[in-house]
Specification:
Layout lengths: L12 E4 L8 E7 L3 H4 L6 E3 L13 E6 L7 E9 L2 E7 L2 H13 L3 E2 L2 H9 L1 H12 L3 H28 L5 H12 L2 H5 L5 E7 L5 H9 L17 E7 L2 E7 L9 H16 L2 E7 L6 H9 L4 E5 L16 E3 L7 H12 L14 H15 L3 H12 L1
Parallel strand pairs: 1-7, 8-10, 8-11, 11-12, 12-13
Antiparallel strand pairs: 1-2, 2-6, 3-4, 4-5, 5-6, 9-10
Length: 390
């Protein structure tokens, strides 16, 4: 934590670092003058070793009681992690953390979010890295964000900033090339903290819900043989090969239906247009319908699935020549389908040490810097790069 403290602390702040709600342990962090914990009397924390917080060693864990009123105190563990940072670990749940935050606020401490506090300590760039990390849902994506946080991304942006700031014979082309190399990974980097969106679509009753259940491994979607059952977009998240994926089970696409179903179909088309990957299902145990052929024409780049391949196929093989045979009942084709999904979403993975922007603000500022360079405005590019590092 010590390396975060890069800017002066004026007003002491306190933030809840752990998620709200019931849990085993919760943590509140205080940044700034923690003399307010020791004084005025009575102190908010009474250590078992009898020493005030100001006399506790950095990185020493201390057991004690929290609360100005000894009769209603809370058992806590306190750690002074830096000369002006302490962390208070208490029983999980709303009551204990609310009491600690209320006590600190009564002594003049400002209650803020952990994101605000991270920015207070290390700047916006630091806060963005930690925010992205908090949303990572797999070890693989967390490791990639941690690599950027450890300095890979900052060093590259600093290098480009220095190049733009120092000038030279003609740095513009080199700056553009390095910015392009960064922005190449923009979409990938943004997805490290939010899942890739995969949408399943097809005519009613082709088995979209069953296929999502099979891919995710539990019954998240409603399975029923009545057309129009899924009238809104139902989602389920999983990880494939370490990458987070959100599947969307959409309303069946067909002409006709009541007003509610047609609204669901319209929402399906909107979701398909926004998806990172589209999967079209065709029930090959039933004769092809005109709507099936329309879908093939409308979405030629989607992954096509010949579903219910455990049943007799009544389609002309030429019509779904490139489709993958899959059965949600027997599991045939599921592993290959998962592989195709990842190949479509992430055709290339950056090698270790590759700088990758990981939030929208970084992408926007890097894009603006490139535009400024191309327009011949070196000062504007330098400003955008500097803002990205703050």
């Amino acid at each position: 934590m010590t390396d975060l403290v890069t800017r002066p602390i004026t007003i002491p702040t306190a933030a809840l670092l752990t998620s709200r709600g019931r849990g085993a342990v919760a943590t509140v962090r205080l940044v700034g003058d923690f003399g307010l914990v020791d004084a005025p009397a009575p102190p908010l924390f009474r250590a078992a070793n009898g020493r005030p917080v100001a006399q506790q060693s950095v990185d020493q864990t201390v057991f004690g009681q929290w609360g100005a009123n000894a009769d209603v105190s809370e058992d806590v563990v306190l750690c002074r992690s830096d000369k002006n940072i302490i962390e208070v670990h208490c029983h999980g749940g709303e009551a204990a953390t609310a009491a600690i935050l209320s006590d600190l606020e009564s002594r003049g401490c400002e209650i803020v979010t952990w994101q605000h506090q991270a920015e207070q300590l290390g700047g916006r760039f630091e806060a963005e890295c930690l925010e992205a990390l908090s949303h990572a849902t797999t070890t693989q994506t967390a490791d990639l964000i941690l690599e950027q946080h450890a300095g890979v991304l900052r060093r590259e942006i600093e290098g480009i900033h220095n190049l733009a700031n120092d000038g030279g014979p003609d740095p513009n082309q080199l700056i553009v090339e390095r910015l392009d190399a960064l922005l190449r990974w923009a979409d990938f980097g943004l997805h490290l903290s939010k899942p890739w969106q995969v949408v399943l679509a097809g005519r009613p009753n082709v088995g979209k819900s069953s296929l999502i259940n099979a891919l995710v491994g539990f019954s998240r979607s409603i399975v029923y043989d009545q057309p129009g059952t899924t009238r809104d977009v139902v989602t389920a998240e999983t990880a494939i090969e370490g990458w987070p994926v959100q599947f969307s089970d959409t309303a069946g696409l067909r002409d006709g239906g009541d007003a509610v179903e047609m609204a669901g179909i319209e929402r399906t088309r909107e979701t398909l247009a926004e998806a990172d990957c589209c999967i079209l299902l065709f029930d090959t145990s039933r004769a092809p319908h005109v709507d099936d052929r329309q879908l093939l024409t409308e979405w030629p780049d989607a992954i096509h699935v010949a579903h219910k391949c455990d049943l007799p196929n009544v389609w002309d093989s030429a019509e779904l020549e490139s489709a993958l045979p899959v059965s949600s009942v027997t599991g045939v084709g599921l592993e290959e389908l998962a592989g195709r999904i990842i190949a479509r979403l992430i055709p290339i993975v950056p090698t270790t040490g590759t700088p990758v922007p990981i939030c929208q603000r970084q992408v926007e500022l890097l894009t603006r810097a490139r535009e400024e360079i191309v327009a011949g405005r070196l000062a504007g590019a330098t400003a955008s790069l500097g803002e990205c590092l703050r």
